[in-house]
Structure formats: structure tokens, C-alpha cells
Design brief:
Number of helices: 10
Shape: globular
Distance between the termini: 31 Å
Number of strands: 12
Strand content: 25-35%
Radius of gyration: 18 Å
């Protein structure tokens, strides 16, 4: 019987995950199918349980249900606990196991696809919400020189930094004039069609400006490009976090390069 997997979200029609996992399955010879499921905003847990009852083996979770998935999990991995959110569910006999592959996906995209070594780099993380929290632990594991978390509301950045020794938190004004090797936009501005504040910091030579959003031209990307940084979107992170989940479920890691190339071409 073909194994069933899915991604839950609301909205979900835009998701690239079904195509990504179909390409992974074709490449690795796995007998599985992967679908997108629109869960009601007040019915995530019920939707997941119905999928499990129908034979589902695992699922990815996207906005706005990652914290709901954390609460639904009987057990969570260390990286999911650090992120405070779950984006990957495995349905085991003894209950639901929650994991978070977002940070691993970002770190692998930087290292494998972009050739960017985290060690010794000065990193600025813009935003202090769930997207930011989910990637801090893997970034710290790469041994950067520093990670500065800057947010419109300084108190939120300070509180987030306190949860991760080795980080510092501050308001956006506090990074004015400072230079960074990697700047990651983890704010919700692009998703809500808002405009982030003007960039007052500077990019070091050969700096990378990484936007977690993909498939759209954002104000952050335009400002970073004008400042001379190498601009990258979050498509590589999407593919790499999917590969991490696929490996957890199927025991084989797909080659992400041709899949990422196919999505870029499309």
C-alpha cells in the first residue's frame, strides 16, 4: 500500500511541498504520495487525527499551526523544544513525535547551496517571532562570532536572546552603523505585504542577505541588493528542510540540487 504524507496549513494552496516530495520520492524510488490539506483554523488537531486514522504516516506543518503541532505531539525533539514549534510530525505506534527541521534546512542551504561558512561570521537576525526562534540553535551550532537579534520591539528581542546563550537582543536602532556578514530577514513584513524599516546597518564585503520568504521580490531584498550584498531567498531553505523531514520518514536523504534547480526553473 502506498504510504501517505501531507502538509497542513491555512492557507495551503500555494505550497510547493507536494511537488518537492514527489520529486524526492521519484528520485529515491519511494512508494508514497504527499498531499496538501487545508485545516480549519480551529480544527488542526482534529484534521491531523483524521489523517492518522486514515493511514497517514507523517506530516509537515506550516503557518499558522506550528505551535499547535508542538502541543499535539506526545514527544518532541531537542531542536523542536528549542524552537518552541513543530513543523514535522511522525506518527508512531506510541504517539505523535514532533520535530523542527527549519533551522537545519537554513543551515544546510547556507553551507551546501550557497557555500557560506557560518563559523566566525557576524550574524544579524531581523525579527523575534517564531521564524527567528526556529533557526537560532542550528546557527549557534555553526560557531558564529556573534548573533544579534534585532526587532521593532526591543524587549521581544532581548527575551529571545536570553533563551539562547551566545545571542544578544536589541531594537533596530541599536544596530545602526554596525557591519554584518550575514543578515537574515525573519520578519513577517513580506508575508503581510508590509514594508520593513530602512536598513541602517551595513553589509560587510561579500556579505549575504538571506530572506526567508521565497517567490516574491521584497523590500528587504531590494535594499540589500542596492547595498551590494549577495541576496538569497528562502526557497533553498524550503527544499532542505523538506529533505530533512523526508530522511526522517523514509531513512534516505534525497539529492536536493536537482529539485532546487527544477523549482528555480519553474
Amino acid at each position: 500500500m502506498t504510504d501517505r504524507y501531507a502538509v497542513f496549513g491555512n492557507p495551503i494552496a500555494h505550497s510547493q511541498s507536494p511537488r518537492i516530495h514527489a520529486l524526492f520520492a521519484q528520485q529515491t524510488g519511494q512508494d508514497m504520495r504527499y498531499e496538501a490539506i487545508l485545516a480549519p483554523l480551529d480544527g488542526f488537531a482534529a484534521s491531523v487525527r483524521a489523517f492518522v486514522a486514515a493511514g497517514g504516516r507523517g506530516a509537515n506543518v506550516t503557518l499558522p499551526f506550528k505551535e499547535d503541532a508542538f502541543r499535539l505531539s506526545a514527544r518532541v525533539t531537542e531542536r523542536a523544544r528549542a524552537a518552541g514549534a513543530v513543523n514535522t510530525l511522525t506518527f508512531a505506534e506510541d504517539g505523535i513525535i514532533g520535530d523542527n527541521t527549519d533551522g537545519a534546512g537554513l543551515a544546510r542551504d547556507l553551507r551546501q547551496n550557497l557555500g557560506f561558512a557560518i563559523a566566525g561570521q557576524r550574524i544579524l537576525l531581523l525579527g523575534a517571532g517564531g521564524a527567528a526562534r526556529g533557526v537560532i540553535q542550528p546557527l549557534l551550532a555553526g560557531r558564529p562570532a556573534e548573533i544579534v537579534i534585532a526587532n521593532r520591539t526591543p524587549a521581544k528581542a532581548v527575551a529571545l536572546a536570553e533563551a539562547f546563550p551566545g545571542c544578544t537582543g536589541c531594537g533596530l536602532d541599536a544596530v545602526a552603523g554596525r557591519s554584518f556578514d550575514l543578515v537574515i530577514n525573519a520578519t513577517s513584513a513580506a508575508l503581510t505585504h508590509g514594508v520593513p524599516p530602512r536598513l541602517t546597518f551595513t553589509f560587510a564585503p561579500d556579505a549575504v542577505a538571506y530572506d526567508m520568504v521565497y517567490g516574491r521580490d521584497t523590500d528587504f531584498q531590494r535594499q540589500a541588493q542596492a547595498a551590494g550584498a549577495t541576496v538569497c531567498d528562502g526557497l533553498g531553505m524550503l527544499v532542505e528542510q523538506a529533505a530533512e523531514a523526508f530522511a526522517l520518514w523514509r531513512g534516505v536523504r534525497p539529492d536536493t540540487a536537482p529539485v532546487l534547480a527544477a523549482l528555480r526553473t519553474a
